[in-house]
Amino acid sequence: MTWKIADTQLQSRFIIGSSLYPSPQVMQKAIQSSGAEIVTVSLRRQAMEATNKNIFWQHLQELNVKLLPNTAGCYSVKEAVTTAQMAREVFGTHWIKLEVLGDEYNLQPHPIKLLEATKELIAQGFEIFPYTTDDLVIAEQLVESGCNILMPWAAPIGTGKGIINPYALNVLRQRLPDTVLIVDAGIGAPSHAAQAMEMGYDGALLNTAVAEAIDPVGMAKAFKLAIEAGRCAYDAGLIQQREMAKPSTPEIGKPFWHQ
Questions:
Q1: pLDDT at 85 over 90
Q2: Which position among 4, 66, 78, 97 bears the catalytic label?
Q3: Is 119 a known active-site residue?
């Protein structure tokens, strides 16, 4: 079943990153295995690879996917805005995954700077995919500023801890029913992605869990299946948890034995 993000109809709800792979060839095969139609890419990575005959860029072009450039590594509003403007020129898209970091230890987004950069870039015609925490107030402020999409973390980037605060992510889904929510960062196992999808999240973005796996191609497929299963379960309607057991076999017509 197709779904819409920004101005694009998609089949896959898996957004995959393009860094950390052992080689461009493995990256290409993993992305193909994932079925993802959107791939995140760093402007800094593109600039670095330009000195190596642009092999990285060539492999991405062959995939025929939609690129989502990001402002990874930016710690100031000015740096993030400038990087976004450059990415629009390099990649030919008004989409930008906006990252404005506030802490070097856990790479947590800086909420005030993120909001400021968001407002500035929206005024310049960008479609913002903001990387944020699971804080409801900041999320609401981003939506009020014009964001149609939010990308709250499950856990700090690259930790693989999975969803450390299910309550907070559930609250975001309940309070922002009309906003596209993509869980981003901290996903370490396919089960983590499935959990987010079962909550009603619209998609999952991850990189490290695939790129640093022993078999990135196989892991990409595992995440693909988990994301599909989680969303299918959400659409089908999960049963409510109960405190008491409920028999699956009715009591009426229950066989009995004579002594």
A1: yes
A2: 97
A3: no
